[in-house]
Amino acid sequence: MxxxxxxxxxxxxxxxxxxxxxxxxxxxxxxxxxxDQTSWDYIRPVLDANFRVLSYNLAGCGDGGEHSYDLHLHSxxxxxxxxxxxLIAEQQVQRVLYVGHSVxxxxxxxxxxxRPGLFDRLVLLQPSPCYLNxxxxxxxxxxxxxxxxxxxxxxxxxxxxxxxxFVPMVMGLAAQDSLAHFSATLxxxxxxxxxxxxxxxxxxxxxxxxPRVNTDTRLIxxxxxxxVPVDVAEWLHAHISGSVSEVLExxxxxxxxxxxxxxxPVVLRHxxxx
Length: 274
Prior knowledge:
- With 274 residues, this protein is an alpha/beta fold.
- Helix content is 41%, strand content 16%.
- Helix 5 (145-157) crosses helix 6 (159-171) and helix 6 (159-171) crosses helix 7 (176-186).
């Protein structure tokens, strides 16, 4: 994989921002690994009725995602947080409500720790600061290093075969149209970029950032998620001062796609709650 700095211009040109809805407040939607901004289509109409909504594609994701990705800039989540902050500034928005799924939960926390005055509230679906179990601190992240090494090997050996098993595993109980949607967005990511992004995510440990988050934070997790166990929800709630945590009786890592009729009103309630 080659670095492509010459293709990186403004965040607004690279990340395909999309506006919808109406209202006085702005909600920014940021998706997780393997998705693009269309993952919000299932719950977006509910949000559009109450807010101006801005979504975008994370670097490397969506149509033409390889042109938005830079190996150096996006070697850590701090680069993705920089993208988020740059996009908000370029769209000339002063304050936002932020909804982030999975890795974008941590991206939002990093950005809010750096620019707390920009974010009125974080509503985070299935976020995790660290996916590795840490025996030294009794932290349960969900994976041992041997599990991840096997995943990386399978991904490098046969990407198509790996993806065919990965999609239903992370989605849990899902209808075929949901599986097809996630598969389609996953395959839009160039395999070498996907491998690099996933390894970067799973090997990262941002637990030290979490206590620096002073923004009003709402945590939403599925009861059963192979990628982010409920232990992570409990750890985050304990380490973010004043946070609110809600565990839904759902299965899977992408409940906003698989069970939007349940997730949409929960997200809306946490956005509107005063």
